[in-house]
Structures are given as structure tokens and as C-alpha cells.
Amino acid sequence: MLRFDRLRRWEDSDDVLQQAMLRLQTALEDVQPTTPREFFGLAGLQIGRTLWDLACHYFGPEGM
After folding, report:
1. In angstroms, rounded to a whole number, what is the distance separating the alpha carbons of residues 56 and 54?
2. Residue-wise pLDDT tens digits, 8-58
3. Rounded-to-integer distance, Cα 4 and Cα 61, Å
4. Which 8-state DSSP code applies to residue 49?
């Protein structure tokens, strides 16, 4: 997995958590996990997507 240490300069872990929780809430409207493993898998997926989007925002072609 990619390392996202460079994001700490602009984003705190609280901000990443909040964005991931909002994504998870939206995802739970469409998907109903039946086991804790599926829930935590979905949560991990949303955290990864949040980190990826932030990395693209700051370091992508249109980034800083």
C-alpha cells in the first residue's frame, strides 16, 4: 500500500476520519454488510479511498 505520510502537512488524521465516516455513511445507504468483517472491510475501503482522493488533490496533475 502506498504511504500517505506527506499528507500530514495539510490534513490531520481527524479530518481524514471525518471524511471517511461521511463516505461510509453514504455507502451504508446502498450496501448492508451482514458480518462485522464485511463492515470493517467497507470501512477500510472508504478510508483508503479518502486517502487516495486527498493524495490526488494535493499531488496530482492539478495539485499544489
Report:
1. 5
2. 778 888 888 899 999 999 999 999 999 999 999 999 999 999 988 888 888
3. 17
4. H
User: Cell numbers of 44, please?
Assistant: 477500510
How much is the CA Rg of the chain, to the nearest whole Å? 13
- Cα angle value 60/8/22 (rounded, 5°): 80
Q: Reduced to 3 states, what is the DSSP secondary structure of residue 52?
A: helix
Q: How many CA atoms within 13 Å lie on the side-chain side of 64?
A: 7
Cα(58)–Cα(61) distance, integer angstroms: 9
Task: Please write down the HEC assignment for all residues of 2-43.
Answer: CCCHHHHHCCCHHHHHHHHHHHHHHHHHHCCCCCHHHHHHHH
